[in-house]
Amino acid sequence: MAEPRLFHIGSAVVDYVYEIDRLPMPGEDLLASGFSALPGGGFNMLVAAHRSGLHCAYAGKIGSGPVGALLAAAFQAEGIDCIQTRAAGTDTGTCVVLVTADGERTFVSRQGAEALLEADDLRSIGSKAGDWFFTSGYTLAYPECRDTLAEFIEGLPGDVTFMFDPTGVVDHIPEDILARVMKRADWLTCNRAEATVIAGEAGLEDLAARLLERSCPHAKGVIIRCGGDGALLALRNEQPAFVPAFRVHVVDTNGAGDVHSGAMAAALARNEPPVNALRIANAAAAISTTRRGGSNAPYRQEVEEFLQRAGEPIID
User: Fold this and answer.
1) Which residues of 62-76 are buried (b: 16+ CB within 10 A; e: fewer)?
2) Quick one: residue 27, left, alpha or beta (phi over 0 = left, psi -120 to 50 = alpha)?
3) Cβ neighbourhood burial of 239 (10 Å; 0-12, 13-18, 19+)
4) Non-local CB neighbours of 55 within 8 Å, separated by 6+ positions
5) What number of other Cβ atoms are within 10 A of residue 158's Cβ?
6) Which of 26, 41, 70, 83 has its CB surrounded by the most CB atoms within 10 Å?
7) Beta strands in 153-219 (DSSP E)
C-alpha cells in the first residue's frame, strides 16, 4: 500500500512579523526591534508534517503577485507540491504578526487568493484511500469559499482521514458551516479558548466530552492544546489523558499550534499510538518556540533526539 499523503485545503499566507517589547496602546507609536516577511498559516503546518516524514501537498490557491511568488518559492524550497493553478489577478493574503518580548503573538489577517478556492479546484485533488485532509477555520471564515469547502469536506470518502483546526477565528465561522465540517472530522485539534467558543464554559475534560459527543460525533479523538501546560487527548470510549508540555526557553510562539497539528497528523498517519503522537507533537511545538519565525518546525530526528534527552522514549 502506498504511503499516505496529506492535502492541506486551508489557507497559506505570508506573515509580516514585527518584534516589539509590548503591544501598543491606542494611538501610540512603537519601534520594532525586528521585522521579517515569512510564509505562514497553512505553510507552517505543512512544513511540520513534511519534516515529520509525511508526504504533503498544498491544495489551496496561491496568488499571482509578489506575495504569492514568495509563498510558492518557499513551498518549492521545502519540497512540498502546490497542486492548484495560480490565481490570476489576485495576490496571496497577508497576516501582520506582533511578537512581544514574552514570546506571545497577536494577528491581523487579510485574505487573498486563498479565499478563492472553487469546486473544480477541489475536485482536481487526486486522493486515494489512506490519505489525510486538513483545513483550518480561516478558510471557513471566508465568505467566498466556505460553502464550497464545507460541501467538499462533507463528501470526503470514509477511507480518508480529515483533521480540523478551527483556529482563533472560530467565532467568525457561521454555525451551520462549522457544524457540517465538525460532523465529518476524524480528528479535532484546537486550543482551550477555541474549544470554549464551540462547547461553552466547562472543565477541560468536560469540554473534550462535549466536543466528542455533541460537535464531532464521528471523531476518533479530540486534542485540546493548553499552551505551555500541555495538551489533553480525549479518545472515544477511553479516559482522557493529559500530556504535559516540555520546558524550554521560549523566544517565539508564532506558528507553534501549526507545528503541533502537523507533527500530530504525521505521527498518527504512521500509526503511532495517539498518546505517543501527542507527546511527539508537544515536543515538536516546544522546539519550534525556541526559534524565531513560524515555519521553523523540527525534523523527525530532532524530535526523537529531544524526547530521548527528556527521558521520554518513543513507544513502539
Assistant:
1) bbbbebbbbbbebbe
2) left
3) exposed
4) 3, 4, 5, 6
5) 10
6) 41
7) 161-165, 187-191
Q: What is the pTM of this model?
A: 0.91
What is the number of other CB atoms lying within 10 angstroms of the CB of residue 149?
25
Give me the amino acid identity at 70.
L
Q: Which residue is listed with cell 480529515?
A: 162
For the chain, what's the residue count?
Answer: 316
Rounded to 10 degrees, the C-alpha dihedral 178/155/7/129 comes to: 140
Whether residue 194 contacts residue 200, with contact meaning beta carbons closer than 8 Å, is answered with no
| Mean local confidence (pLDDT), 70-95 | 96
Check: CB of residue 190 under 8 Å from CB of residue 221: no
DSSP state of 158: T
* Burial class of 157 by CB neighbour count within 10 A (0 to 12, 13 to 18, 19+): exposed
Q: Cell for 261?
A: 497539528
Q: Is the dihedral of CA 41, 47, 50, 53 positive or negative?
A: negative
Predicted confidence (pLDDT) per residue in 122-132, tens digit = 999 999 999 99
Q: Is there a contact between 37 and 13 (Cβ–Cβ < 8 Å)?
A: no
* Three-state secondary structure call for residue 174: coil
124-182 residue pLDDT tens: 999 999 999 999 999 999 999 999 999 999 999 999 999 999 999 999 999 999 999 99
Name all domains of the chain by residue range, CATH numbers in brackets: 5-20+35-309 (3.40.1190.20)
- Quote the CA–CA distance of 227 and 28 in Å, as a whole number: 29
Over residues 89-132, the pLDDT tens digits come to 999 999 998 989 887 888 898 999 999 999 999 999 999 999 99
Residues 165, 44: contact at Cβ < 8 Å? no
State how far the Cα of 288 lies from the Cα of 260, in Å rounded to an integer.
9
Query: Is the CB of residue 96 less than 8 Å from the CB of residue 64?
Result: no
User: What is the distance, to the nearest Å, from the Cα of residue 228 to the centroid of all Cα atoms in its chain?
Assistant: 17
Question: Of 316 and 224, which is predicted with more confidence?
Answer: 224
